[in-house]
Specification:
mainly alpha
């Protein structure tokens, strides 16, 4: 297998198998073995995630949605509405203007939510890098397979040209025989 991979590497990539990086070696092996290289990267990245990573993804997904914005606006409106109701009804409020307790809650939410979203973005960037690497391998294999197909087509065409030349030589000999046998007229 390594000999065939080395032949592929030399013929198509212009370098020995041992001189290639690991990704290119993997592609050369797949070309030599005639095996598929494409795989579902979303399943691979999901299978290797921890509980914390999945939780960070869920928080980022919810925190970046219209549902969160609507819920957040509703909570703020209820907070201000309840304060206004208590002020009018009882003359007291649980969070007086400028809503210090609300500001504290919002600051704590932002302080917790920001690093979680950053963790999720880092994880997404890692997924994107893995997908890009996989795309590179698939594209390289496709390019190498196309090069192999071009070589096969060129060999077929050369064989056909040889056959056509042989047939033409036979036809010329037959015509020469005919010309010699039949006197001009």
């Amino acid at each position: 297998m390594k000999a065939k991979s080395n032949d592929i590497a030399l013929a198509l990539l212009g370098a020995s198998y041992d001189a290639l990086d690991e990704k290119t070696r993997r592609v050369a092996r797949h070309v030599a073995d005639r095996t598929h290289i494409a795989r579902d990267m979303s399943k691979e990245t999901a299978a290797g995630s921890t509980l914390g990573q999945r939780a960070a993804d869920a928080v980022a997904r919810f925190g970046g949605s219209w549902k969160f914005i609507g819920l957040f606006a509703a909570v703020l409106a209820c907070w201000v509405g309840l304060n206004s109701f208590f002020l009018v009804r009882y003359g007291k409020v649980f969070d007086s203007y400028p809503y210090i307790l609300l500001n504290l809650v919002l600051s704590m939410l932002a302080a917790i939510q920001a690093p979680i979203i950053l963790m999720s973005q880092n994880r997404q960037a890692q997924k994107d890098r893995l997908v890009a690497e996989h795309d590179y391998e698939v594209n390289l294999k496709a390019e190498l397979e196309i090069m192999l197909l071009h070589e096969k087509i060129d060999l077929l065409r050369e064989g056909q040209w040889s056959s056509l030349l042989e047939m033409q030589q036979v036809q010329i000999r037959l015509l020469e025989r005919l010309v010699v046998k039949v006197p001009p007229g």
